Structure to design on (609 residues):
């Protein structure tokens, strides 16, 4: 009798996994089919255009610019976002919820609106752009691209890092401090290393989000052209057949970087468990 | 609870079926150019007031596409209005139409705000000198992407002819971008490079579409930009009108406009011509008579007033071409 109920329990559990897997496969297909279809169409129907695009200097320049500007944005997000994430994870204070909501706002607002807001503030007559106008120009320049990318991508880093810090038991820090370490040292040597996988995942997400940005960037900096602007441009002026190879190339490059970074973060995970 | 949901679903589904929503109204399909959206929205309201049992459905698209809907996509339209009158005859004659009426025009203007540098100085005689000043920034849309973009280039080149000053295009455009105008066999030709190679300097803001430049003006990033008169009017911007010899507004100067061509990076060649709107009722319209009624409204005093307010000045009297139907004859001058 006991055996039997165990068996039904096991079977019903198998059934659950089976249903979940089935549903999961559908959503996976939803993601994979358009991507594979696009790459396959390009490779099968017009591989020559893809090769030509891979040799096109202005395409390579735009892809590099995307990667580089997104990297700068992620770096700035790390420097300013991680400390904020730590404070949010460790301290309760009045207005904390509103701050957490504000951090999510860039995810919600339409990108064009974000771009207009940034242009108004960072333009050469803007609140921030004007006092800086003798030193740094944002409109149609690299700093403008970085600012737009930072704005839309920083929430991913802050949220992920905060979760990381929350998962580290504060008592570990306290132990270190009771043994004579300063708070600074305890955070740097205990908490941050333990939360590092969350921070890394947040940085990857933030970098990826930055690369994909188009709507906000194109308002503040149409030039120099990042890859997403170039793809849009080629689509408008010459149609899908001209824009698709660029898109496929960008996808392949990003996929490679992604796989590499995920592999690194997976090794980190093992280190976590040890 | 389950029952309630079921009842709700049944009600929803039955509403989706015809009969619940649609009444016995006649549907009048008006296919028109995108830039006519604002005035035609008003026309629709007026028309439905006058004919309460007609439902006007408007479809806005690029002018070429608007006509192709009728000639190639087997869509029936009761009215076709194009931002380029000269497309109607070659694309629709004789099978789909045998007349059209020129009813409104648009033009390239220079829009600005009160805060633009030298806003109180600029006029028809000095605008190119002001735009060329070191501390002035201006914008235009990308000639590869946007008709307003290549028309702006045409206007600047036509200014050289009108003001008899061969340096205008060089000073304003060539010095600050990689756009180059050449003179070949009596025609001025701009061969636009790929968009990423236009490479404007700090002085010039280029954006893909003319609408995106509005933000540049609002943020005081630029002082002036080239734009359709209708857009400037609809956004309540100040604007400078240019002489008809260069602003592409008048059929009288069609021969002058023809002297300028733009070859887009895709290889597509566009030749300068007046921005004049044309309207017709296709032969295969489902409601031909009602279609004519709509055209009458557009040509009426009220219709003209709407067009004027939206910055697309009506042509008065409207000019007809081909076998204009008898009942419209009163409203047009047969050209």
């Amino acid at each position: 009798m006991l055996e039997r109920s165990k068996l039904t329990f096991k079977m019903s559990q198998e059934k659950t996994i089976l249903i979940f897997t089935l549903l999961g496969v559908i959503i996976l297909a939803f993601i994979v089919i358009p991507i594979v279809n696009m790459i396959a169409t390009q490779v099968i129907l017009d591989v020559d255009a893809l090769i030509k695009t891979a040799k096109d200097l202005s395409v390579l320049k735009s892809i590099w610019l995307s990667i580089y500007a997104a990297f700068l944005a992620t770096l700035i997000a790390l420097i300013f976002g991680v400390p904020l994430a730590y404070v949010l994870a460790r301290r309760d204070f009045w207005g904390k919820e509103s701050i957490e909501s504000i951090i999510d706002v860039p995810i919600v607002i339409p990108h064009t609106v974000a771009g207009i807001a940034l242009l108004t503030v960072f333009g050469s007559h803007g609140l921030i752009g004007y006092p800086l106008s003798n030193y740094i120009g944002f409109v149609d320049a690299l700093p403008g691209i970085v600012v737009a990318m930072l704005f839309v991508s920083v929430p991913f880093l802050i949220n992920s890092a905060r979760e990381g810090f929350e998962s580290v038991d504060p008592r570990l820090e306290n132990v270190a401090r009771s043994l004579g370490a300063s708070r600074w040292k305890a955070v740097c040597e205990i908490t941050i290393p333990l939360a590092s996988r969350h921070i890394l995942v947040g940085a990857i997400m933030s970098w990826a989000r930055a690369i994909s940005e188009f709507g906000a960037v194109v308002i503040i900096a149409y030039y120099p052209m990042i890859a997403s602007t170039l793809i849009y441009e080629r689509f408008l002026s010459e149609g899908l057949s001209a824009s698709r190879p660029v898109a496929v190339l960008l996808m392949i490059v990003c996929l490679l970087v992604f796989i590499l970074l995920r592999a690194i973060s997976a090794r980190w995970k093992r280190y976590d468990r040890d | 609870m389950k029952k309630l949901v079921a009842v709700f679903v049944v009600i929803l589904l039955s509403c989706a079926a015809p009969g619940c929503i649609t009444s016995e109204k006649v549907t009048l399909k008006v296919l028109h150019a995108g830039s006519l959206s604002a005035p035609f929205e008003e026309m629709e309201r007026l028309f439905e007031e006058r004919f309460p049992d007609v439902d006007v459905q408007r479809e806005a698209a690029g002018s070429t596409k608007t006509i192709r809907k009728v000639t190639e996509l087997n869509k029936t339209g009761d009215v076709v209005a194009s931002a380029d009158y000269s497309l109607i005859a070659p694309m629709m004659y004789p099978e789909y139409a045998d007349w059209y009426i020129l009813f409104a025009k648009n033009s390239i203007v220079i829009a600005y705000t009160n805060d633009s540098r030298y806003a109180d100085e600029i006029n028809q005689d000095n605008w190119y000198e002001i735009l060329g000043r070191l501390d002035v920034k201006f914008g235009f849309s990308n000639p590869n992407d946007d008709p307003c973009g290549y028309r702006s280039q045409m206007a600047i080149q036509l200014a050289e002819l009108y003001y008899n000053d061969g340096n205008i295009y060089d000073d304003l455009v060539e010095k600050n971008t990689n756009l180059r105008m050449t003179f070949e066999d009596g025609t001025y030709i701009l061969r636009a490079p790929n968009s990423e190679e236009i490479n404007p300097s700090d002085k010039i803001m280029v954006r893909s579409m003319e609408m995106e430049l509005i933000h540049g003006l609002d943020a005081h990033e630029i002082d002036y930009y080239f734009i359709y008169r209708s857009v400037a009017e609809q956004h309540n911007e100040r604007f400078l009108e240019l002489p008809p010899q260069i602003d592409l507004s008048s059929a009288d100067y069609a021969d002058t406009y023809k002297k300028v061509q733009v070859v887009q990076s895709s290889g597509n060649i566009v030749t300068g011509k007046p921005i004049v709107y044309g309207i017709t009722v296709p032969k295969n319209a489902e409601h031909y008579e009602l279609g004519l009624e709509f055209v009458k409204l557009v040509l009426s005093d009220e219709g003209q007033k709407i067009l004027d307010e939206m910055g697309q000045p009506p042509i008065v009297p409207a000019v007809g071409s081909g076998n204009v139907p008898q009942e419209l004859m009163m409203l047009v001058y047969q050209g």
Observations:
- The mean pLDDT of chain A is 90.
- The radius of gyration of chain A is 23 Å.
